## 1
Amino acid sequence: MTQDAPPLHRVRLGNDEVSRVVDDLRTTFLRGRRWIWRAIVLIIGIAALLTSYYQIEPEAVGMVTRFGRYVRTANPGPHAKLPFGMERVQKVPVERQLKQEFGFRTKRAGIQSELSKDDHTQEAIMLTGDLNVATVEWIVQYKIADPYKYLFNVRAVEDTFRLMNEAAMRQIVGDHNVTELLTIGRESIAGRAKDLLDELCKRYETGIVVQQLVLQDVDPPEPVRPSFNEVNQAIQERERAINEAWAEYNQEIPRAGGRAEQSIQAAEGFAVERVNRSMGDAQRFLALQHEYAKAPEVTRTRIYLETMTDVIPLAGKKLLIDDKTKGVLPLLDLGKADNAKQDVKP
Amino acid sequence: MTRARWLAVIVAAIAILTIWSSLYTIAETQQVVITQFGEPIGKPIDEPGLHVKLPFVQDVNVFDKRWLEWDGSANQVPTRDKKYIWVDTYARWRIADPLRFFQRLRDERSAQSRLDDIVDGETRNVIANHDLIEVVRSSNRPFELGDAAQDVISEEAAVPVQQGREKITRMILERASAVMPDYGIEMVDVRIQRINYIDTVQAKVFDRMISERKRIADRYRSEGQGKSAEIRGRKERELKKIESEAYRRSQEIMGKADAEATTIYAAAYGRAPELYRFLRTMETYRSTVDAKSTLVLSTEGDLFRYLQSSSVPRR
């Protein structure tokens, strides 16, 4: 183009010159045009190559549309398509496991993931079936099973999916009371919410398949939390009271059993002793009686006198009375020793 | 020559423009209404691909074919039992009749504002006609309760539901759907995304929750005390039983032994009762007389008889 500029100034000079210049111009133009054409063809060629080559990552498939109409699905690898936007490719990560979080966000995943909850409590706060309030956090893991439906059936699929999640979870939680939600019902709530979500995904034809729905933190609202803890404490207290009572029971009953056994054994011992003693006494008596029968009078006197010999010296006082002597008794002060003691004592 | 060339260039340009203007594409997600000078021509087209129209005079009006979003803002609505709640609904809709849609609403923006009016209005109407419990619960499924929680369900929550959330949302959907065909719109779903108490009500609900939990806690505690008292009582009973049984057994055993001994003694002593009495008496003397005893003995007795006389006594 810069070459063309100087000849233009000479146009006024004369016809010959004009024709010569035109010739010049034409030759340069023609020569130049060849270059331009080549350049254009080259550019078009490169553009065609660039716009017809594409590549699909291993986790995705490519949905190819020609003039807007879906024509084929491209598997992972390098591919060619019609250039210049006649065919277009939308990549859908069908193999990737996708995840949505409700009530919190993972700010930075890692060994110790950072979570942020601040702005997402509205997602988590909900009414329970006994008209109480709880915050429920959950995650849902899903895959795109049908890329055609995923792309062409519902606009803003991900947003819709989030809304479906919130609606489904609240519907299920609304059918459980707060105690169930916080304790025994977690599993079944997650299961039922997943079922409902599955059903909605099918109805909306989102092409999404829910793989897992997991409840995360489920809590009573902040101001109520201490009273829930109190309930847990009370449960502990109940268990402790019961356990203590059982401990006492288990301590005392076997001991009592032992003591009972002991007293029975003692009674058995007494019984054996009693019988043996009686038998011994009987034997001794019979032996004595046997000998006694041979000389009763003498034996009797002997035993009597022997006993008296032993017994009489033991007594502190002995009084001998002759029946013929009357009036001794009044003189006898039997209680003398005792009276003396009484005098001293006070 | 050059003029012909220029002409050719111009004709070619016009031809290209004409072709360009008469061709259009429809994507998988689209449907179109062709208008000629603003007047809709023919039926709406939803077949994706390359299409032809009259150049210049006909225009292509593109509408989405997919399910479209509508997300209402939260509304403060009183329920029939005068509970004030925030209700946040969402809906999905599609342009079922693009021609009518085009004639009535022109574009999605006006459709959205129409949906705002209709869905919000119907939501309000339906919810105002139902108790809160109807909107929250979906069935009359009984709660699986912890033992102590049974009687702390508040009265309003214990009422069996007639409709339930699912039916109520179907009701909103039905009512909203009724007017939609007029706009060429099909409502495909309406759902309650969120329900929350308004702040003042929420504070009261929290108070109630706290008192409910207190009652549950008290119940657990008294249950613990009751159970432990029961166990202690059982323990007492067992103890008494064990002790008394042991007593009975030992008394039985000892009684039997006494009986046996008595038989044995009777058999032996029965042979010579007089001798037994004598021996036993002697024994008694031995054991009863000690230093404190005073013996008064008569000279008439056997022992001291000889103090008086040594003659052989006469029997």
Note: Residues 199-254 of chain B form one domain.
## 2
Amino acid sequence: MSAQAPILMTPLAKKKIGHERRKLFLGLAFISPWMIGFLAFTLYPLLASLYYSFTNYSLFGSPKWIGLENYINLFSDPKFYKSLGNTLIFSVIVVPASIVLALGLAILLNNKLRGNSIYRTLIFMPSVVPAVASAVVWIWILSPQWGLLNGALRLIHLQGPPWLSSPDWAKPALLIITLWMIGSDMVLYLAGLQEIPLDYYEAAELDGATAWQKTIYIVVPLLTPIMFFHLINAFIWSFQYFSIPYIISVQGSGQPADSLLFYPLYLYQNAFRYLKMGYASAMAWLLFLLVMVCTIIILRSSKSWVNYGN
Amino acid sequence: MNNKRLFTLASVILVLSMVLTACGASATKAPAAATQAPAAGGPVVTITFWHGFNAHEVDFLNGIIAKYWTPTHPNIKVVTTGNKSNDDMLTAMSGGDSPDVIMGGSSEVATLWASQGAIIDLTSAIQPIKAQLESEDVPAGLEWGMYQGKYYALPFVNYNWGLYYNKDLFTAAGLDPNKPPTTVDELKADAIKLTKVDASGNITQLGWMPLNDEWRALNFIMNQGGKFYDPATGAPTFNDPNIVSAFQWDLDLQNTFGLSKVTAFTTGFNQGDNPFQLGKVAMYIDGCWNPEFFKLNAPNLHYGVAAIPYSDPKYANANDLGTNPIMIPVASKHQKEALEFAIFFATNKDIAREFSAEISNLPQITSELTTFTQDPNTQFFAQLSTSANAAAWAPVPYSQKYLDEMTSAIGQMYNSGVAPKDALDAAQQILLQDAKGYTK
């Protein structure tokens, strides 16, 4: 192509470009507080931890580069597998359980009965109680001898298990605590239920559909976008579950018998109890990869079951 | 101004005030009682002292500092902050605002922090008083503060563990309440006599509390000749035959009644309840601070204290002597003053005596062991701390991981039926691998 003569800028064109540039700067200026925060408190620590995962670092002194040694050691660490197993088992149970429970409660409370708002509020309240406060109260409720839960079971002549003192019952106990806070997820589904046009229900009734059939063929398909969002969120959250297991397992030890040693708990122990920051950073990045893989799988699968409607 | 501008201005002021509040908030500090006017010609240096005590112990500590330190050291003002956990201290030491003197919340942190360069080597600072320190202090208490043969922490009020036994339950079972078991064979025989089982095989009274707690376990193991590490190399020796046999002995004893029955019994108590205090367990291992506890919470409990039974007399009177290590962070900006205070605090006999009595621990200075308390049970523990077999159970950098691996192994042995040899072999492999990361 032959060289072109330089394009002459008309005054109007110059003004337009200047105007665009000003808008750009203005926009950048407005997001600069967030941008600075993001760079300093999210991106930089992220990249720093990636670097540390290839080093031996204890918070004191300078990091010593050791390449992939942390990752290799992780794969031969029995506690790595134990903690990963605990987290996976718990996630596989708690995520479907919370979807079913949240959806079920939302359907039950999606009517115009009196006192509805009271029930919704009561169910929602546990999710705004701080995690630490909930955990401490639940430790008492789950006490084998004096707790309310075993007391209630005794009323119906059942011998309650030792809950947090038994490795077999510690995870079910944690499941109960976690599902108790289902309120915020239920509200999500309630909102989605409000969106379903009543005509659909009426049309279904005309065809003679039972309540169950209405649920299966109308409610669930139309709520799949919310279920999809909830599924991804719940998986990501469950892989990072830290605060409540930390409090209820006696100073974050994951006891009894490592049944509550979840992945983030073991990560925390490695970082702050053994001062193996590099090792802990490697654990963090493996977790990131795992969560990313799970999310991609769920995303790919969504095409087959998520119904965005028209 | 129109409404929109007014609203914007109000919002900005509100946000700014919230930001300023957040920035201005700081941890509450409890200054020591008012200092006297500084001596002429000396600038006053203020140093911060972090510790893990809380409630009334904070005030007591400040009172002690005001009574013994302040009058003779008007140029160095000490500001204490209580309720600081090991994690709090770690964060502060690695950040920009480190305290000048810290008292660790557990014995085990000193070796780890020393090995990672978080606390300073005290060798040159204590050179003038090293001979005095080593002759005056209870020897075992000094072990936790040493790393690679150098002092990194000074001991402050020690603590140890011993055998508690219920005299009333002894009498009821036909045993002499003044003759607790001294050997493990006697212990086993007594434990069986003192255990009561109801018609369905459930335990209603347990003779011997199982070793399913790492502190009971390691103290018991020390009396069976178990060695947790090799002093020459610093390597762990968790599958030492004496350790394996100690756990095996305990499991066999519990299996006399059924381990699951025993576990059901011991887990049936509330978190925070002490089954021994409730008269449901006849013998157990616990710390030297309990006599004061029992005075307050169970004044009618007739109990005695004794050394933990041994398997061989040469292991007798063994106990893990823990301490509250006094350390100086590398990041401290007033190391000279901090050292002066730390050395004073850790070697002053009055402070050791008074603080031990207050928190039911044992003075780290031998001469005070006989004068700090009138309680015969506490006096027993004080004497126990000077026994030849009193020691730090594992003064190695990986001791925190060691504790956690022990807890896991105990869980496997007592809850999941894994044989001691297998559980300890597996834990030993993990610890060996971990220990490689630390230079001895």
Note: Residues 24-40 of chain B have pLDDT under 50 and may be disordered.
